[in-house]
Amino acid sequence: MAPSSIQIDSLAELRKVEPDAVARLREAPRSAHLFLMDPVGALASVGMVLSDEAVVEWEDLLGGSLPTLPQLTRDLLLSSTGGMQIEVRIDGILPAGPGTAESQ
Asked: Is 102 helix (H, G, I), strand (E, B) or coil?
């Protein structure tokens, strides 16, 4: 059963749902691989849909554009049945920010 979809409209909202996003990415190993190449697409693949504004805020935080892949490439990666040669473990998706436990 696919997880319910969550609309994320700001960086603050993304911070609030980050633990759930990480858990969803961990449950979908191919999405964790995809996260390295297309973080917004990977989050969408596990039901975490970011608005354009949330993406812009995330890019501003990082000081540059997030990488993206064409939809066909994302679909091929997610539907691939071959074994992966490397395991990707996602522990977080955002750098520590003001007011977060990691920044204190």
From this structure: helix
pLDDT tens string 3-14: 789 999 999 999
Rounded Cα distance, 94 and 62, in Å: 9
Asked, for residue 92, whether it belongs to a domain, the answer is no
Model confidence, pTM: 0.78
Can you read off the two tokens belonging to residue 101? 């436990």
Domain interval for residue 13 = 6-78
* Cβ proximity of 47 and 26 under 8 Å: no
